Amino acid sequence: MRNAIALIVILSGTWLLLSGHTSPLLLSLGLVSVAAIVACAARLELLDEEGVPVGLLPGLLRYGPWLVIQIIRSNLDVAKRIVNPKLPIHPTVIHVDATDHTEVGRVTYANSITLTPGTISLDVSEDAIEVHALTEEAANDLMSGEMGRRVQRTERP
Amino acid sequence: MLIESVNIFLLALLAVTAIAAVRLRDLFAVAMMFGIYSLLAAVMFVLLDAVDVAFTEAAVGVGISTVLMLGTIGLVGRYERGSVRSSLLPLTVVVATGATLIYGTLDMPHFGDPTAPVHQHVAPAYITESPQQTGIPNVVTSILASYRGYDTLGELAVIFTAGVGVLALLGLRRRKRPGKEGVGQ
Amino acid sequence: MSGLTDLLSMALLGIGTLFLLIGATGLLRLPDVFTRLHGASVTDTLGAGAILLGLALAAGWGLLMGKILALLLIMALLGPSTAHALARAATHGFRKPWLHETDKAEK
Amino acid sequence: MILTITLIALLVTMAFALIRAIKGPTVYDRILASNALGTKTVLMIAVLGFVVGDPELYIDIAIMYVLIGFIGTVAVLKISEFGNLGQPQSHTETEDP
Predict the structure, then answer these.
(1) Which terminus of chain B has a lower count of CB atoms within 10 Å, N or C?
(2) Digit-coded pLDDT (tens) for A113-129
(3) Domains held by chain B: number
């Protein structure tokens, strides 16, 4: 029920943002389409914690700013290495432990790794994430497990 | 001025893409070049203020036609065999047709010409009157769904029939021999 | 205040442009698919992010800013999925990543 | 002014991505180039909106493009990896030379 309400709020917000119309006719049409989508989602049994992960929201709000700072930091590093051919690149493939994460946590972790320049997740399995790193520093940074711990904190609010 | 320069640059990129697509022998790469061609063409349509055409170009060109082409490549193999026949005659035909078409466009009104016939009667009428007459803010939508409502309904019926026909043909075969159907069903 | 916002917006656009060019250089210069993916992700994250933030500031408060930020959010959510799908497909297509010489010598 | 510079830079990066798409050498390089070009197209439309002076409309188009581009790229990758769109089928991908 909580998920259905959250989905209605999200869809209505999206509709209002993208259309910008407030006349009664168009608003009611928007309401009908929102209701139709929620009904379809309910029938497809998508209204569980995986389909509408509202429980993760507070954790993600705390995690977001830290991730943005990481992205800017590693962006600068990768950009330096592209511009200056003298700085060496040292591509490596490493396996990052992900045994303690839930399914949603692994997805967040893998996406964070990919979003950070210099590291890309190649394959996600039950207990580990295969990562391609551009430099040894990026690989060591990831192996220190700071990101993993922070992702873990978002899973259990 | 800036917009014209952007248009010229995009046209140059389009030409490069097209030549690359003709010259490449790897059909997968050719399919990707067609996708890129559609993307560039879509930007040009946006610049020409033909937003709905740009939408269609992006959805059909980048999305579905790439997928269909790749599906076909999956069935016929990835590499093109070089043609043994001379390409002189086809080249002549293509150049002649192109020249005729360009000659034909010379009689058309200049691009953006405000005195062109199309800007004198129909277009201003729809642009000024359609919001009052139909109550729909988007002119293209009001023409498609209101003025030409029955026309659009007919089109949809035709497309639906075609879709059902294709599904009937492919679906029957699939049920007899599971796991043997084509790629882009 | 408005002058400050304009200045900030211009600075963000400039930074975005710079990273855009760097990312494209990386796409051209780096040795294999995986390293090129890193170059492309520079463009996709900081380049696109800074440009869109600059545009959002130029738009000022209102629906338009919301739309630009929504565009930014969508790009941030879909970008890594595409990059991961590409990297995974490349691994499964038996593309061995180009590794450093010392690593090759060890193996 | 700065918008013009951004626009020119976008055109240059599009040209770079196109060069990568033509040069290849692998399938994945071309998909990557095509995807990067899609990102640049979206940014370009957003910037063009401000240059032309009608950002509202152009941003809507840009949002549409992101979604279409995502679906297109994932569909292409699914085909290149599995040889089909997800139906159970024997692996029929042709071998790279």
Answers:
(1) N
(2) 888 877 888 888 777 78
(3) 2
